[in-house]
Design a protein that fits this description.
By secondary structure, the chain is mainly α. The chain has one domain. It contains two helices and no strands. Helix 1 packs antiparallel against helix 2. It is elongated, with a radius of gyration of 12 Å. About 10% of the residues are buried.
C-alpha cells in the first residue's frame, strides 16, 4: 500500500471514529487531517532515516 493511500486511510478512520464519538464534524475533520499528515511525515522520516 503506498504512503499516500495509507495516510488517507488512517486519516479517514481517525476522523470517522472521532465523528462517531462526538457527533460534530469540526473536530472530526481536524483529527482526520492531523492523522493523515502525521502518517505521511512519519513515513517520510523513516524513509529518509533509512538512507
Amino acid at each position: 500500500m503506498n504512503r499516500f493511500t495509507l495516510g488517507l486511510l488512517l486519516g479517514g478512520l481517525s476522523g470517522g471514529v472521532t465523528y462517531v464519538l462526538t457527533a460534530d464534524t469540526t473536530p472530526a475533520v481536524v483529527v482526520g487531517a492531523i492523522a493523515a499528515v502525521l502518517t505521511w511525515l512519519g513515513l517520510a522520516t523513516f524513509l529518509l532515516a533509512d538512507d
